[in-house]
Amino acid sequence: MPSFNYEALDGAGRRLTGTMDGDTHAAVLSELDRAGLLPIRAVEAKPRKTRTWRQILTPEPKAEDITAMTLDIVMLLKGGVTLSEALTLLTQMGGSRWRTHVLDDLRLALSVGKPFSRALAEHPRLFPPMYLKMVEVAEATGRLEDALTSLAEERQRVERLRKRLIGAISYPAFLIVSALSATVFIFLYIIPQFENALEGFRDKVDPTALMVFNASAFLRSHLHTIGMTLGAAVVGLFLVSKLAEGRCLWVGLAGRLPVVKTVLTHDTTLKFCRTLSVLLANDVDISSALRLLRTIIRVPAAARAIDGVIADVRKGRRLSEALESHPFLPKHVTQMLRVGEESGRLADSASRVSVFYEARLDTAYSRLIAVIGPATMMLVSMLIAWLIISVMTALMSVNDLLK
């Protein structure tokens, strides 16, 4: 009997994690429900496999690669090819080692009678819970082609927005790194060239200029210690960012900034409504849809609110009422979802909201670029100008004293 790692909430709203044996994913969720817990997710625990050096050194597929593979499968399914034949053809077409490896694993799993969703679940790092649930439901309803099409389209939207965000922060990040590099170079190699000219006149130099020379001396004398400290800090931040809790922490801190807060609000609303629409349109029940939504929302306050919404919905309350009791979406969004719920077209209402907020998020990214780029350029220019003026002021002061 396989084991599953689960996450659930108790009656007090505390998050519980553990491992439970069960025949299927649904059986574990049912057992947690019978135990009086609110199940969030259950993922089959796989024994650690020894990886060869070739597998370790070979990059794993990116999210874009999985999306492209999904589109390839959809194209072949629309051409009348069975799923097993589609996987065989894609394996024979070749590609990266990891792509071929994953396709071959999926094909072998199907050949021994495993459902496609169970085969995908053996690669949890590549196929998230939403992907698995939609495929599982599609297999039961015979709509696998439609489900994979919806998944591929949704992943493409997410990837476009991610690239937009990366584009928004890449240029300012480049400016900041360039400014820091130029500053370090000036402190280490340029300013020391003028220190001999200040010998005997340090008490006569302007305090601001003297601070620059003292900072240069401190940096040169403690260069190794500073370098090791910064290296350890970078490694520590990298490790923390790899943890789900760490990512949520950074998102929570960034959400306190005025401009970033608006972007995160739009992003959370878009993710919630878009994902809800896709899941409901593919016959995923509302409780399962909310549990899957809980796994993709990174803003801590919104995630806690969704926990409350899940609990209320399981008690029989309507979604719109639960959203009003645990507000994390704009009020007009909750009202639009209420209208869709009352008319029996909740998926359509959520889809319309997501289209609107996708446009707003794109506009917010444009404003972010328009603000951060020039602001960073001004700060870089002011920093370099301050250093140059400080050094020139000190030299002019020495020159005046020598006259």
UniProtKB/TrEMBL annotation:
Membrane spanning stretches: 165-191, 221-240, 368-396
Domain of life, source organism: Bacteria
UniProt record, GO biological process: protein secretion by the type II secretion system
Membrane topology value: Multi-pass membrane protein
Stretches assigned to the Type II secretion system protein GspF domain: 73-192, 272-393
Keywords assigned by UniProt, alphabetized: Cell inner membrane, Cell membrane, Coiled coil, Membrane, Transmembrane, Transmembrane helix
InterPro entries (UniProt xref): GspF/PilC (IPR003004), T2SS_GspF_dom (IPR018076), T2SS_GspF_sf (IPR042094)
A cellular component annotation (GO) from this entry: plasma membrane
Compartment list: Cell inner membrane
Keyword Repeat: no
Main location (coarse class): membrane
Coiled-coil segments: 137-164
Tagged with keyword NADP: no
Cited Pfam families: T2SSF (PF00482)
Family: Belongs to the GSP F family.
Matching PANTHER family: GENERAL SECRETION PATHWAY PROTEIN, PROTEIN TRANSPORT PROTEIN HOFC HOMOLOG
Protein name from the UniProt record: Type II secretion system F family protein
Organism the protein comes from: Lichenifustis flavocetrariae
Lineage per the UniProt record: Bacteria, Pseudomonadati, Pseudomonadota, Alphaproteobacteria, Hyphomicrobiales
